[in-house]
Predict the structure.
Amino acid sequence: MPATLTTPAAGRPGDADIARRIATGDHHAFELMMRQYNRPLYRTARSILRDDAEAEDVLQEAYLLAYRGIGKYRGESSLATWLTRIVVNEAIARSRKTSRRAQIIRLDGNADIDNGESDMHDATQEQPEQAAIRAEARSLLERKIDALPENFRTVFVLRAVEEMTVEETASCLGIPEATVRTRFFRARSMLRESLSREFDLAIDGVFGFDGARCDRIVAGVLARLDDGLR
């Protein structure tokens, strides 16, 4: 389990002290900070970019920007919020650049969108069937989140996945708290509707009785009939 940087309440350095240590060239403190915030920041970047590799690249660029500019951190917001703002800005800039590049590619008739999926949890202790079901459900949910409009998608990830407060989310994204509430409500509604449609389509195929199962049962009954007629 990676070491973490905790708050003064636990007798450890607070955000301002962590920033000061990093600003003086303490690479160990910087590494611990990255390990502590990697997952939420990666998820934030991916919510905007919808691509694993792009999100990783953006996160690395954001960390470099944070390292160079951490001397300017004054503690007006939490370190997590400060880092999230950097990631959001970098991800949006990358998204715009990628969008412009995609427009050029589409003119040539070659447009590929790679919606990679990440396994954020370790399922090695589960039975293979349980792990497969969880992975399939997670994959479906990730695809549906990816399909949300960008403004709703990022708010949903910060609020529902990272469990940020309305105030924290508004601060990270630079939007009013009322907008966060509205977008989060709409994102949940869109997800429910989308998942409900998926469920309705899937339920028709539950306990399917065609194909191999049908053939196997019919063959078994006919074989027993034949035996009885002998």
Remarks:
- Confidence is low (pLDDT under 50) at residues 6-12, 101-124.
- The chain has nine helices and no strands.
- The chain has two domains: 1-108, 126-205.
